[in-house]
Amino acid sequence: MNQWTERRARPARRHVLRVSVRAGRLGSAALLIGSLIGSACAATASDVGAARGNWVNAWQGSPTTGATFDTKSCPSDVGLENQTIRNVVYLSAGGQRVRIKVSNAGGTAPLKVGEVTVAPTLASDASTSAAPRTVTFGGASAIVVPAGSEAISDPVALPVRALTSLAVNVFVPEKTGPATQHFLATATNYLADGNQSHDAAATAYAGHASCWMFVSGVDVDAPRNVDGTVVFLGDSITDGYMSTADKNQRFPDFVARAMAKRRGPTFSVSNAGIAGNELLTNRDLLMFGVPAATRAARDVWTQPHLKAVVLLEGINDIGDKSAKAPEIIGAMQQLIAQAHAAGVPIFGGTLVPFMGSNSTYKSDYGTPAGEAERLKVNEWIRTSHAFDGVIDFDEATRDPADPSRMKAAYDSGDHLHPSDAGYEAMAREIDVDALMRAKAGAAKTD
């Protein structure tokens, strides 16, 4: 069941922070987006200087910081020193130019980046299918990014195709300290000593990393039929936890593939999921990120050519913090208000079943009390008409014989996160045509 209703809103006010960077050979006019947390509509990447074109966000790895569960495979707690990380990212849209967002959003000290390069990759190993091209910032190949900030590169002439992988290589010459990362990459990334940013054969990349580091976004100058960006804001279910690594089986990936098959107008897909994220409060572990209504200022409203948002959050508030439905609804209303202030339609996803998950996740995950709150939240999402549309992920994934549980064929085994088949079922619940019409103000109800 998809429910689509129309809501008109005021256009957003847009602000860009421009900071001169002067440090030896560093660029003198690099564009930096300052600390965006706490501002509802801070900066928009579409406003970047002379980078005119049809810019959309083709990939996002919402940045966090702090130690991960496996500090050997993701050394974000200590960071890197005189090393290169090859981040392998999956593009939802193609184009003739790219620009890279380098992030020090979670850093506690300035981040010195010696060089960034990009190249297409088959993602079957660390090698690239072409020689990596240098990325510049204000015309220079090196940049210092202040703590709490992110830098957007100059456009790079590099044709890329939708639904292919891109290697984004970041060389850091000095000790970084705790590093900005996205811990649940569900993709293999690579580490090498020294500056190996131009190593196409990847002979020097002896190490692996389970997280993305220092890179939070890739924008593309897309063909005109790519009519904007849709952002999926969520937690581990949006982030694709328990999906098959290196296969791009997150439910927004399935949506991206559906978009790519469309004839005529389409959207790029930007995944702003962070595993463990909540609507209301900070989790104990920094890697789970700040609350969704707070980080949306950076992860959602800054995306270029933003046309729609899909929200799927709240299950961790219930499970981890025993939050009550009115609290969760209040946080959702805050995000709805932000979206409407930006003139962007926002669609609410119902929370998927989670009974049976308590043995793994404890607290109120999969308890009768937690289930009661989930049902109340879902009833409000479906009936309040507060969102501009409803996507019924609950109905798409639940067991008809026991609606409090996920359908066995869609269950990854922990009774909370879908399998690859479950993520595909979630994507099928999204009427792509309706999503495209909704940005133009058309409505659908059923």
Automatic annotation (TrEMBL):
One of its GO terms (molecular function) is hydrolase activity, acting on ester bonds. Pfam families: Lipase_GDSL_2. The keyword Hydrolase applies. The keyword Signal applies. SUPFAM superfamilies: SGNH hydrolase. Residues 232-425 form the SGNH hydrolase-type esterase domain. It comes from the Bacteria. Keywords: Hydrolase, Signal. Residues 1-42 form the signal peptide. Transmembrane segments: none annotated. Coiled coil: none annotated. Gene3D superfamilies: SGNH hydrolase. This is SGNH/GDSL hydrolase family protein. It comes from Pararobbsia silviterrae.
